[in-house]
């Protein structure tokens, strides 16, 4: 699918299968989420630009590659996005973190922002927006709207599972944002759950219901 990268690494696929199982415990789900998010982070950053830095090894001077540009931003869509942060920050400890909270107003059906915090100079940074589930796409679309309003220009979206309906909505709103996902599932059910999916990602990682 255009504009969508499916991360088909065997370890990612294996861990995802265990996460989908209804009998996987909260502790197991959380541990797997941390492991899988590290692998997803590796893939979503695979083509970052490098520059060279003059360094001294114990033997000699040499030009050696380092990441170019300002520190990355990981933008978590509350609350389930937070589950992806730990593994990603282990791989990129210097990344800045943004938190974005949006809910849908029951009357207007419009997304309402209730929390937004991000580092400065968003326009000069790569922003990787994270949310485990791309279902209808409404919250990720709204979160990216908010980031763009604050100047973000270079944005990627990372999730675990995506529904085809959500991808279509997302791409209509933000055709410039590449989606990275471990799986494109079959469809959304009438309650907005991804099928076959893994249930409610927030509930599964935090043990709520
Ligand atoms: N959010 C979830 O946590 N799970 C779904 O299946 C859809 C949205």
Structure in words:
Residues 6-208 form the Phosphoribosyltransferase domain. The protein has a single domain, classed as Rossmann fold, CATH 3.40.50. 33% of the residues lie in helices and 31% in strands. It has six helices and twelve strands. The chain has helices at residues 10-20, 26-44, 82-91, 138-149, 164-173, 201-206; strands at residues 4-6, 50-56, 61-67, 73-77, 96-104, 111-117, 126-130, 133-134, 154-162, 178-184, 187-188, 194-195. Strands 1, 4, 5, 6, 7, 8, 9 and 10 form an eight-stranded mixed beta sheet that branches. Helix 1 (10-20) packs antiparallel against helix 2 (26-44). The protein starts with a strand and ends with a helix. Bound molecules: uracil (URA).
Topology readout:
Layout: E1 4-6, H1 10-20, H2 26-44, E2 50-56, E3 61-67, E4 73-77, H3 82-91, E5 96-104, E6 111-117, E7 126-130, E8 133-134, H4 138-149, E9 154-162, H5 164-173, E10 178-184, E11 187-188, E12 194-195, H6 201-206
Parallel strand pairs: 1-10, 4-5, 4-7, 7-9, 8-9, 9-10
Antiparallel strand pairs: 2-3, 5-6, 11-12
Helix pairs in contact: 1-2, 2-3
This protein binds uracil.
Binding site for 5-phospho-alpha-D-ribose 1-diphosphate: 79, 104, 131-139, 200
GO cellular component, one term: cytoplasm
Catalytic activity: UMP + diphosphate = 5-phospho-alpha-D-ribose 1-diphosphate + uracil
């Amino acid at each position: 699918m255009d504009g969508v990268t499916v991360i088909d690494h065997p370890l990612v696929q294996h861990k995802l299968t265990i996460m989908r199982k209804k009998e996987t415990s909260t502790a197991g789900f959380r541990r797997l989420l941390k492991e899988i998010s590290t692998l997803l982070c590796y893939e979503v950053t695979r083509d970052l630009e490098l520059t060279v830095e003059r360094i001294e090894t114990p033997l000699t001077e040499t030009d050696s590659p380092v990441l170019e540009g300002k520190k990355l931003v990981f933008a978590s869509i509350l609350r389930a996005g937070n589950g992806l942060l730990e593994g990603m920050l282990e791989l990129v400890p210097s990344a800045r973190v943004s938190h974005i909270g949006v809910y849908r107003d029951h009357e207007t059906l419009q997304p309402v922002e209730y929390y937004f915090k991000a580092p400065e100079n968003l326009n000069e940074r790569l922003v990787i927006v994270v949310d485990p589930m791309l279902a209808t796409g409404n919250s990720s679309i709204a979160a990216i709207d908010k980031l763009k309003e604050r100047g973000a220009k270079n944005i990627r979206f990372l999730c675990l599972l995506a529904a085809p309906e959500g991808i279509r909505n997302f791409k209509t709103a933000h055709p410039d944002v590449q989606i990275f996902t471990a799986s494109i599932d079959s469809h959304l059910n009438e309650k907005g759950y991804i099928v076959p999916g893994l249930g409610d990602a927030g509930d599964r990682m935090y043990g709520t219901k």
